[in-house]
Amino acid sequence: MDSIIKDLDTTWQDGESKNITFIVTKDCQLACKYCYLVGKNEKERMTWEVAKAAVDYILAHEEDFQEPSVVWDFIGGEPFLEIDLIDRICDYIKTETFRLNHHWFDSYRFSFSTNGINYDSEKVQRFITKNHSHISVGITIDGTKRKHDLNRIWKGDGPEKGSYDAVVKNIPLWLSQFPEGSTKVTISSADIPYIRESVLHLYSLGIKEVNINVVFEDVWNDGDDKLFEEQLTLLADDIIEHGLYKNYACSFFSEAIGKPLDAQLDNQNWCGAGKMLSIDAAGNFYPCTRFAGYSLRNKRPIIIGNITDGIDSNKLRPFLTLDRTTQSPQKCIDCEIASGCAWCQGENYDAAKTDTIFQRSTAICKMHYARVRANNYYWNKLFRKEELEANKPTQSVNPI
Amino acid sequence: MIKYLIIPLSDNAVSFCHYNARKGSSATIETETLRKALIWAMKENLSVQFLYPSEGVGKNIELIINTIDHTDIVPADCRDNNRLKGADIVVFNTWDGIETFGFRPDQSYIIRTTTEILINHRDGIQALLKKVNRLNIVVTDVPNFNPELHNGYQEFLESLIPTIVEEYSSGHMVQLNLLTDRIMLTGMNNCNAGNESLTLAPDGNFYTCPAFYFDGFPAVGTTEQGPDIKNPQLYRLSHAPICRICDAYQCKRCVWHNQQLTFEVNTPGKQQCVMAHIERNASRKLLEALRKAMPGFMSETIIQEIKYLDPFDNIKI
Ligand code: SF4
Ligand code: SF4
Questions:
Q1: Is the beta carbon of B272 within 6 A of some atom in ligand 2?
Q2: What mean pLDDT comes out for the span A98-118?
Q3: Assigned domain for B185 exists
């Protein structure tokens, strides 16, 4: 397609970098209703000793971490609640990679997903100024005030109170520092009616890239797919009719989705669990944060090692050999619109009938169908518009 | 499809495999449960294998056992002489008494031992290969198979080659699971617990294999309702990404070890793979030696030379 259409930015050094996540705290100012972190609490905060031991272990085992670059990811709860610790960890990483002449010394990023509430605090701002060229920050804002406040509410007793105002005030500052900043929006059943207005609202705030996805959990009600398709169709009309596609991107619409997949050639796993590493406050290692105890509803955590004993490579073998067809039911293997139908390994594990990562959850099946239908509409309509505009006679042509 | 039903008759019934039976309990299966299970097994056309404790079993159990065609797996120290005499398979859990045991050509034998002790009993195994027709060696500490043991295990296996060649040359086709099975097989022949075999435990419930019962895993069904294995595809070779590209056909592919080492029944730990590949490569040397001694021996069989000891290293996703 013509380059006039804005593409979604791919992640920094996508596929080339190791993703290492510090779960610095399990605390957060908010109590979002869809939050998958079932075990959030105020007590489990990472200590400096644990963080340092984790960095020491990782840097001392360079042979096991050969990716050319690294994304040091900090999550929570709300990571910026622990900005002092984060600052100390980042300084330590920089000095240690230099001292060890480690191949990640000049090939790293510090990445944050924040609720944005204390983004303008002095400490966070000082940290951002200090590390600016090596930072990615995503602020989560769910859309319009009514949509955002539907789910993203303050923690605590008393009447529910939304957090929209506390977040939106920091958006201009954030975008002035990270003009390409993107946001993540998560759609659950109750959010469907607000999808269109929310994406347009985020665009109007100056956010050019909206990464939006439906939750993987089995939360969908009868009729949700119809409503979802309708919202996406309306959104497609707005984006195309107002030419928003030239400067803004929304991850719901992609040319690559909705095609059959070859059982041999397109057999990769969807997510990077196992190729990433997560560390919690106790110093335990996980293949991804979704396998830590506070993220799981029904299953035991999958711990693949710890800062003292290192990584147990046997525990990684299932993750590193897991392919699409082995975990998929036959209906997914035969599916005519399989491409772009995502899964989360952690949710698969949590929802599986046995303690396995090899059983794919298909709770989003009907939502993917709806998305593909709206997506087909979007591209057909957009191509037609482009085609008509390209063929439009120009003023300079002199009709005989 | 399930073809075999394994029944440990009590909590201290002999282990025939990698797991250890439960220590400290001698609870015996209830007669009524056993009776129902055997009727079910007949209806399902299953081959039944009974595992006995050293003290044997009471008359009530004996009577029920005899209502079905079956295989008896009996410990070598069984105090019921008739039971031991009638055994199809005799299991040794220690090396005591092996030298003086009256081995018979119509019985098969299992020796359960740790790797280190096995390596130290090379002479004993060589002597045994002359006396028996079928010997299975089961290593009970696979998870501890570390690189320091690799050479010792390889040397041990290779040291048995001359004896086997000698026996074959004289017409005694002795079978040793670790070396001759790979030569005879043309495809995977693994334990297949959960896929081809199932266990009825002394508590009256079904388990994937006795190891899962003794290790405290949940049951996969009751005698009332029948077995109900969830995610059964994960016990099949087709859904085992490492094993399905492997040619160590003699490997047990122990799903219990898989569960212990990797948390997944379909994914082996490194220890099991390396051990099985040392056996595979030694089998290749045995085949060469047999061909030298007996030109044309199994001329169709080819075991390729390979450079890896763990098929996981060949998978790049
Ligand atoms: S799973 Fe199979 S190989 Fe493993 S202990 Fe059980 S019967 Fe033996
Ligand atoms: S050697 Fe490893 S890959 Fe091969 S069958 Fe045994 S467990 Fe599976």
A1: yes
A2: 96
A3: yes
